[in-house]
Every structure is written in C-alpha cells, then in structure tokens.
Amino acid sequence: MKVLSYNVHRWGDDREALARVVKACAPDVMLVQEAPTWWGTRRKRRAMAASFGLRYVAASARNAVLVAESIDLVGALHWRIWRPFVRRRLRLIATQLPGGAVGGRVTLGSAEVALVVCHLGLHILGRQHELEQVLRGCRSFGTPYLLVGDLNETPDGPVWQRLADEGLIDLGADAGPTFSSSDPHKRIDGVHVTPELSGRVLPIPAEVVGDLPLASDHLPLLIELHL
C-alpha cells in the first residue's frame, strides 16, 4: 500500500503543480495536513480530492483522508484536540486554529491497520499535550497503526522522544528534511508505525521534483507500507 502524507498549505499555492505531484505519486491513501477550510470547506476538499483523482472520505479540523477508488476506509474516527486560541511567545501574541486528528482502518494484506494523520501546534508544551490526545486515539483502534503528520518540531524535540517511548518506529529517519520545499533544511514531518508494520519512505518521482516548491511549502512523504 502506498500512503502519501502531505501538508498542502491550505490548497493555496499552485494547484496544478500540486495535482501533478499527487498523481505522479499515485497513492492508495493520502493523509492531508492543512486541508482547505472556512467557507465551503467540504466542497473545496471534494474538489481538491477530485483534482488528484481521489475521494474525500473523512476529516477533522485541518486534517483529511483521501482514498483511491479501490480503497475502503472503515471505522473512521475524528477528534478535536484542545488547543488554546491565543498563543504567546516572548512578546508576540497570535491566535491558533483548532487542532485535530483523523484516521480509519484499511485492509492491508490479511489484516486491518489504522492510518492516522495529525497536525500539532506551534507551542512546545502544547504539542506534547496534543500528542497524548493523538496517541490515545491511535490506541483506540485496537490495531497496528501508521501515524503521520506535521509535528512542527525537529527530531531532537520532546514530541519525537515521546513517539519513540511509545514504541513507534520512525520510517523517515533517512528521508531528509521536509521543510521548506524551496529550501529544505529541517525535518518537521513525521512518519511512525507500530512494530507490527514496516515500510520505507520512497523518493518522489523525478518528473515532478520541479513542481515541489510550487505545490506547497512542505515536501510530501510517500510511504510504502506493509506488514
């Protein structure tokens, strides 16, 4: 199974370039961060999915799950994550949109596995609190699971350590930086699996590498997943 994890920057950059990237990756499931929101949210997300040749099936906050026609997502769970509306850092005050995570079960070989996507916040303590809520949701599926998302933190941070303490395997350890797409210099997007699963991060097809800086401010992660 091929799974594409991608922060699409609210579908606000070059949509044609983004569609070319996704179609070239040809995922069975696409786990989206920063899906379009505000007015006409569902209409926009369905239109975005259609431009990729995929189907929009579930979402929470700014995360969404898209699937190919041959894939059935069952038992979808979507939960809001508590996050303070006002964030303070040094002398700066900013607002934050609500957080969330979404996932569901798919059939992989002869087994069911859960695929979950999240987008953690910008405050270091808030991210740790959010991750605990995400992990509780992952465990609630009662199956092996893949967890992907924009963690907004580099691998030397406490969120990554907590994922390791949970026993999850970092499939993207050798995948290189994921942000920014125009000047990749830090890895803030994660791909983690429970020990029952294995896989690897695949290279993005060469014919669309030039589209990556146009499509989004993040680089995608294309995952080959198997038992």
From TrEMBL:
Residues 4-218 form the Endonuclease/exonuclease/phosphatase domain. Gene3D superfamilies: Endonuclease/exonuclease/phosphatase (3.60.10.10). Keywords: Endonuclease, Exonuclease, Hydrolase, Nuclease. The keyword Nuclease applies. InterPro entries: Endo/exonu/phosph_ase_sf, Endo/exonuclease/phosphatase. It holds the Pfam family Exo_endo_phos. GO terms for molecular function: endonuclease activity; exonuclease activity. This is Endonuclease/exonuclease/phosphatase.
